[in-house]
Structures
1.
Amino acid sequence: MSPLAALNSPSPADLWEMDHSHALHPWTNFGSFQKEGALVITRGEGCWLWDADGKRYLDSVGGLWCTNIGLGRREMAQAIAEQAERLAFSNTFVDMANDPSARLAAKLASLAPGDLNRVMFTTGGSTAVDTAIRMVAYVQSCLGHPDKTGIVARDHSYHGSTYLSQSVGKRPGDRVPEFRYKEDGIWHLSPPDTYRRPEGMTEAEFCDALVQEYEDLIARVGADRIGGFIAEPIQASGGVIVPPEGYLHRMWQVCQRHGILFIADEVVTAFGRLGHWFASEDVFGVTPDIITTAKGLTSGYVPLGAMIFSDRLWQIMGQDPDRWFTAGFTYSGHPVACAAGLKNIEIMEREGLLANAARMGALFQARLKRLEDLPLVGQVRGRGLMICTENVMDKATKAPLPDGVNESKRISNAAEAMGLIVRPLAHLNVMSPPLVISEDEVEFVAVTLEKAIRQVTDELVREGYRLG
């Protein structure tokens, strides 16, 4: 078949070859990609995906934490199509607007906590975080503190992949020698990982130590140099790290005492993942200065991000009528994306998906917790519809297997062969299914993942590893 014919009517093998020969994937590992290529997906419905050969998989990853209302929604497709026909694009720079972006901004203001009534639309989560970090410096400068521009984040954090957002994040494996990262004016604290807290320390003592570490950093660096603190309520891609009780609230209080703006990175946790529109206040008792969000905002149907910030920050920036906030993107407030966001929220409200996420999240956590009985699983942790299994070689010491064993990828490969997609990250297998998941689908995930873990455990034992 000629290349043009394959392009117009490709077979599954043609699709694989096109991708293999021409695409650079995010986070490509060149060795495995050259050898194995990629799984080509051609259809989705609800929690399920179909590949080019017609095989069906339950996507327990929810795309990338994002397919909240499920795939294949005809009314969503119609809303997108109708908006594209009516107004496919509209410039939103300076003094231009469009009706879907105006309506979505007002809707987000009504859902966000406290006085977070202002919205800047971006292209996704990375650009929302990038813009939030820039806003910190802008606001502090407006307050007369031009040197108070530094950002404090945590180890094992992921905040995006722009130069600035990836420099602020510090997830293991993301820093590679071929790239360069911003180092000055960025500081990282210990992650609030209770599973790997110092031996003999209670969770309450661990929380005290984490807060003290922040206070010590401020004393060492100087509050006059730190403008903002950024935190995911639950560190998602960094290991589904659920903080100890009271940690986020206390860190927020430290920020308030030192005039440091609190950025809640809710790209993952917003729009139902934990059973609430936003997790910061409802779950963790924090009213941040800025919330960044994306993913569940449109359930992944089209790209859209948002930085939601307080009236107080707006008033600070707007005191001088001659100021310009010189940030934004061609596709900020894209009318089709905003129409999708509005329809997405309408569906979630009408179908009670937050309540379903809370119910299914409790079942999901309880059912998968039983996997801790397996010799390879050190901990099952999470909250709501976000969860991971952490694989260890020794349960008592929590020592992981050597990195080269790659057991989490082997587990995901085994699960994929059985029709289940889970995400391998270092020594973790991560899941974040759509909010529409059913009890039967939760059971399918649990049963299938257990089979995959047992299969890989048997392989490791035959290879000479002693587990348990």
2.
Amino acid sequence: MKNNLINRCLIGVGIATLTLASVIVIRTLGFTAPPLANVTPESPDLDGRAIAAHLSEAIRFRTVSAQLNQHETQQEFRNFITWLAATYPEVHAAIPPQKLGTKDGQEFSLLFTWPGRNSALPPILLSAHYDVVPVIPGTEDEWQHPPYAGAVDDTHIWGRGTLDDKGAAIALMEAATGLLKQGYQPERTVYISLTSDEETGGESGTAAVVKKLKSDGVQLDWSLDEGSFLLHGFIPGVESPIASINVAEKGYLTVDLVASGQGGHSSMPPPETAVDVLARALVRLNQHPMPGGLEGLSQKLFDAAARHMPFEKRLMFANQWLFGRGIEAALEKQNSTAAMLRTTTAPTMLSASVKENVLPIEAIATVNFRLHPRDSIDDVLQHLEQVIDDERVKIEVRRGDAASRVSSDEAHGFHLVADTTRALFGPVITAPGLTIAGTDSQRYQEIADNNYRFNPMLVTREDVHGFHGTNERISIDNMVKATGFYQRLIQNANTPSQISDK
């Protein structure tokens, strides 16, 4: 009797196991993507060396927006604008830019208006910024080529701004020049915005552009700005590049945590100082991050990529009800993918005593949060209060900007960007994504139905180390493809079939 019961239990377990395995396999077999379109990428008839030479010249202008309070830097911006007009005379003659600015009378941002034949069609805006971040002091000797020399070798242009974002600005000018030389005129109005202070928040540049277009009653169909790239080698098991066309970006919140304590001489410290109180608060924040998970935009991106993975990896993504926590744990191990799952917490600055032998009355930590679209500023502040749970620590907001709205990945503009990407780069995976940093698009959403964030350039893990870091570079081939992309995108957005399909 006992043996029969054991046998029945074993049979039941076997049947359950077989059923579970069958469900997992069936779901995995259904979790596939159709073969990538066998598209032969276009080879734009463009002079790559000439484009590289122009970007090289642009890099030599030290347009560091963080230093715009210095007269020498202001002159660098003026010189760049003068050079731009001399280098792209066709653009400046046919669609002369309006200089814009809202701060201290400095008008360093440029808005080109390319009138369309049909004023009834909603316009579009293509944007890039030409300001750059400073070179980290003390790292100059670590650069393979001097950061502002604009060195060009057989394959790459080197220097601060090549990827972020002068490369895109020059590609836009090259694209407009090529179309104007062909006598091209768009059906819908096309705006080209080159802004001057994206790296410091856009308060003079993008803000002025938005103010100008709002005052003119302009409502854009869509805008395209920086925010992501064609990513190659970022997701294990996916061999094809992934064009992450980002439809939203994280918000920005900076707070000061101010811990109070008993001052005095360091030779007679109390059991707990202001620094101890602050350190405990920071440790608690580190141990209790904001809740997160693979959902929303991050889910869409990884679902699109996972369908092209080998069977064993597809199996996990196809059955997230079973393997979800394991997937998230794996994604958490890489900073870039972990940031897509939640609002991030980053202590960035510390200050306390004015002298080494004086106990501080206050110790201050500045903490920067990048807000996932699921979280509000109030959500983060409540989280801080609950986690720190110490009345001796005050939370003072320095700056707070909510996450952007999420644009549609089903809209006409998204498909135009995706189709144009495939035309230039061949069979690549396209998917909506989330920009984990900030861009000018945060402001453009005031005047556009949809905002997309994507630079038409292929980058690898090696390339991304140059962002705001050392040895920033871009390939000549990328500059040719980006120029061809912008040309084709403008044409695609203005062809009768595309307009009628909208």
3.
Amino acid sequence: MSKKKVIIVGASHGGHQSIIELLNRYNDIDITLFEAGDFISFMSCGMELFLEDSVTNVNDVRNFSEKSFPQSNVHILNNHLVQTINADQKTVSVLDSKTGKTKDYEYDRLILSSGVTPKSLPVPGNDLENVFLMRGYDWATKIKSKLNDPNTKKITIIGAGYIGIEAAEASVKAGKEVTLLDVIDRPLGTYLDEDMTSILEKHLIKNGVDVEMNAKIEAYVGDKQVTSVKTESNEYPTDLVIQAAGVKPNTDWLRGTIELDDRGWIKTNAYLQTNIPDIYAIGDATLAYSIPANNHVPIALATVARREARYLVKHLFEDTPSAPFKGVVGSSALSVFDYHFAESGLNSFTAKRANVKIKTSFYSDTLRPIYVPADKGNTKVHVYLAYNPDNHQILGGAVLSKYDITAQGNVLALAIENKLSLEDLAEADFFFQPGFDRQWSLLNLAAQHALHEDKF
């Protein structure tokens, strides 16, 4: 009996996890993974660590390599661009960019994990030298070279999301003058509510970042090489531009075959199936099912792709999947110089975009009992909660402090995933030890505050 052929498109987190799950669950399969790029599975989320010399080697900043799976039934092919899906024949046409030859490969199941590509602003001058993007192996090594170049003195970052903040911090630590520009009104404004972003914006400025929000970029100025960034109201001299202005799904090649929404995200059903039989999609290029939003929304996170891959492979060969994918919460964390935060689920921005009604609460306190002085580690801590105003179901939350309390973000994620209420969180049984926390734990207190109870 011949082995079932599974083709995976994309060596991202979803592609990597799919191989692992397939090998763990099945014996009679042949796996082929195609990656368009040369370097297999660079982890862009580890780019800041590389730029700050906090990794062993740039070639180690990856999920896996071609040598990670020595099994004879696993074939990992880089520099192979999947160009066309021939659904009637159940084949894909693949261009080998090294030889220039195209070959058709048969599949029984096809898993699309094609990911996203960074956006370059459609403004004059975006093709000038020293206008960079912040994603992937090649751009990482180019940025690192500029950070080490003493002739690079001024760096302008376009985009104040996670990637832009990471670029700004790495640039400051490299001794550069840094300007951070974004069209939104506050840095990290799509991830956190204003109570927290106001703290972080002041901290960015304190650490030497020139933060310029509500800045509409009109052009990159220069002859062959960029010399300034022009906005509606100002012009910023620069030696290097790093664009971190969002991503777009890598799905243009699927148009006319796979059903996409009007922005290019792959549509899937409750079983992660596309509109074509035996073709599935996971990861950043899809609309993930959000538990708190009760809807499909774009959530470009490695954690989402890996959970989708684990579910998908488990049910890959079932005629009718025994259960739908239960969905994800969407959780992430970031350090901004001395501050650390973790967020999960919905905030005011994402709730509005998903048309979900929420109420919010912001709570500040100290980490430990009041008899512990600040110089002995009794740090200020902040908690944001978003919840359904009618039944108090927790739909989102975030924690922020100079002390690393980001693990509390995982507690919030579990609360959101399991649809706990404020009342549940207010009484949840957490440990107490004054070397770590309060008599009521931080999240207990935040929930009690949201319920308008007297402060403990």
